[in-house]
């Protein structure tokens, strides 16, 4: 059996990190949805984040066996675009929830997770 080249190993590692981050985002955001149900604009970002995390996990599961370098890069690029959308939804949430200290709290960690996922793709 032939060892994969260095680029393939790096992309496989990135995919594993994406998997960890997206699953963590899904569970972390799902726990906060119940606390913010009082105002629709305060919870819409959380639902958007959950949908993005579910899409990312589905992409990971569907492409798990595809280990060619081209497929790995394509999958990681899709997950990076979803991370950019996660950041956009979080920035919208910050503008809506900044004045309410009871609802503002999960946005900064979500913003960091999105930034870490983008950094994961390029570093």
Describe the structure.
The protein is an all-alpha fold. The protein has one domain (6-32, 63-122). The protein has four helices and no strands. The protein has helices at 6-32, 40-62, 69-97, 107-122. α1 runs antiparallel to α2, α1 (6-32) packs parallel to α3 (69-97) and α2 packs antiparallel against α3 (69-97). The relative contact order is 0.17.
Proportion of β residues?
Answer: under 5%
Number of continuous helical runs: 4
Helix content: over 70%
The whole-angstrom Rg is 16 Å
Q: Helix and strand succession?
A: HHHH
**Dominant shape:** elongated
The counted number of beta strands is: 0
Q: Compute the number of structural domains.
A: 1
What is the terminal-to-terminal distance? 28 Å
Task: Fill in the keyword field for this structure.
123 residues; 4 helices; elongated
